[in-house]
Amino acid sequence: MKKLILTFAVLGIMSCQQPAKIAYVDNVELLDKYQEKIDIETKFNARVEAMGKKKDSISQAFQLEAQAFQAKAQSMSQKKAQEEYGLIQQKGQFIGQQIQQEEQEIQQAGRTEMDSLVSKVKKEIKAYGKAQGYTYILGGGEGGAVLYGTDADNITDEILKILNDKYKN
Fold first, then answer.
1. Apex CA 84: angle with CA 81 and CA 87, to 5°?
2. How far apart are CA 47 and CA 39, in angstroms?
3. How does pLDDT run across 31-76, given as a tens digit for each residue?
4. Which of 29, 46, 97, 156 has the greatest CB tally within 10 Å of its CB?
5. Rounded to whole angstroms, how far apart are CA atoms 14 and 8?
6. Where are the beta strands (DSSP E) in the chain?
C-alpha cells in the first residue's frame, strides 16, 4: 500500500513538471561563419605570412654571408677560419632561436584570442538559452554531443545572427 501511494506521488510530481526544452548548436558551422573568428584567422594568417617572408629574407641574407665566408676562408689560416666559422654558427643559432621565439609568440597570441572568442560564444549561447527558456542547449558538429537533431531544434543560425550583429557594433 505504501509503495502504491509513493508511486502515485512520484507520478503526480513528474506530471506537474514541464518537459525539458532542448536545442542544439552546430559548433563547427557557428564558428566557421562567425565574422569575428574569420577576422581573427585573417589577421593571424597575415602575421604568419609576414613572418614567413621575414624568415626567408633573414635566411637568404645569412646564406649569402656564409657563402662569402667560405670564399674568404680559403685565404685564411686554419685557426682563424675555425674561429670565424664558430662565430657564424653562433649567429645562425641565434637567428634560428629568434625566429622560433617570434613564431611561438604568434601562435600563443592566436590561441589566446581564439580561447577568448570561444568563451564569448559560450556566454552568448548561455544568455540566449536563458532568455528563450531552454533547459539544455547541446553542442553539435564534429565531436559534438548531438548525434541527431531535427532542424527545428537547431538554433545555430539564431546564435550566429546575434553574434555577428554584436560584432558589427
1. 150
2. 12
3. 999 999 999 999 999 999 999 999 999 989 989 988 888 888 888 8
4. 156
5. 10
6. 22-26, 136-140
